[in-house]
Specification:
The chain is α+β, with helices and mostly antiparallel strands. It folds into two domains: 2-56, no CATH class; 76-176, Fumarylacetoacetate hydrolase, domain 2. The chain has four helices and seven strands, in the order E-E-E-H-H-E-H-E-E-E-H. The protein has helices at 35-39, 42-51, 84-89, 163-167, and strands at residues 2-6, 13-17, 23-25, 76-80, 99-103, 124-134, 151-162. Strands 1-2-3 form a three-stranded antiparallel β-sheet, with no helix packed on it. Strands 4-5 form a two-stranded antiparallel sheet. Strands 6-7 form a two-stranded antiparallel sheet. The chain is globular, with a radius of gyration of 19 Å. The chain starts with a strand and ends in a 10-residue tail after the last helix.
């Protein structure tokens, strides 16, 4: 199932991308694809709704803006240097343990939205990343296998960095994100 959001910036509505390729509006049934939806029984309710016929949902008008698929993420945590070739191209050794850093949650935008490049940027870089959407709180799990029960889904992202800010001005990754 492919969750989408559409509409004006910060006024997006929830929808799905149907098997037919059409975008369908789910806003009459759900407030948004947000923390409450994911942590509650929202996915089960959505599955039942779609089983009743996704073709009964209104079609989203073609020119409607695509939004980020998840509304207002509470946190964006990233793993740095997770690709050995990228670590080498950065002049760094692949880490023995994951390098974790945060990104501001308000940096999450739709796939065709403009990206704000910081003033004075000299080395803007971008990478495609696989994103794991965590749907439920997870603390002190007994095993790595238990983590899959907390995954709501997957999406892709454009991870944009200003490398000079990040690497040449204090070595703080957050500064370049």
């Amino acid at each position: 199932m492919k969750l989408i959001r559409f509409g004006g910036f910060r006024r997006e509505k929830p929808g799905i991308l149907a098997a037919s390729g059409e975008r369908r509006d789910c806003s009459a049934h759900f407030a948004d694809w947000d923390r409450d939806f994911l942590a509650g029984d929202g996915m089960e309710k959505l599955k039942k709704l779609i089983k009743g016929g996704a073709d009964k949902l209104p079609v989203v008008p073609e020119p409607a803006r695509w939004g980020a698929p998840v509304a207002r993420p509470g946190k964006v945590v990233a793993v740095g240097l997770n690709f050995s070739d990228h670590a080498k191209e950065s002049g760094m050794e692949p880490p023995k343990e994951p390098v974790l850093f945060s990104k501001a949650a308000n940096c999450v935008v739709g796939p065709y939205d403009d990206i704000l490049i910081p003033r004075g940027s000299e080395k803007t870089d971008y990478e495609v990343e696989l994103c794991i959407v965590i749907g439920r709180d997870a603390r002190y799990l007994a095993s790595p296998a238990e983590s899959t029960a907390h995954i709501a889904g997957y999406t892709i992202a454009n991870d944009v960095s200003e490398r000079a800010f990040q690497l040449e001005r204090g070595g703080q990754w957050l500064k370049g994100k």
